[in-house]
Amino acid sequence: VQLVESGGGLVQPGGTLRLSCAASGFTFRLYTMSWHRQAPGKERELVATIGPGGGTVYADSVKGRFTISRNNAETTVYLQMNSLNSEDTAVYYCHISTYWGQGTQVTVSS
Asked: Are 45 and 60 in contact (CB under 8 A)?
């Protein structure tokens, strides 16, 4: 299993970013995919999940601002992040089962 995140960076408060996670090594369409994040000094937390059928779950802190989606043909899961604020600053990880990507840094700062 390989999970490769991309799309992180530095963005101003109120800005947007789109994260991507390219997955391989398993039957992507059959699995629930999720995004997690870990801010400095804090525990890793769930951000959003998307099931095989497209059902989604979001952390309360990102509801209405973030959207998780998937493209089964491209075996990629996305996280569209809008209205970013400083509390969204973290390393964002793609996750399935016991596997994690390497993470992509998101920094929200003026």
From this structure: no
Return the SS3 of 99.
strand
Q: How far apart are CA 74 and CA 24, in angstroms?
A: 10
pLDDT at 48: 98
Listed in sequence order, the residues at least 6 apart from 18 whose beta carbon sits closer than 8 Å to its beta carbon are 7, 78, 79, 80, 81
Cα separation of 37 and 66, whole Å?
13
Q: What is the sign, positive or negative, of the torsion defined by CA atoms of 18, 21, 22, 27?
A: negative
Residues of the chain short of pLDDT 50, as ranges, are none
pLDDT for 25 equals 96
| Cα gap 83→94, rounded to integer Å | 21
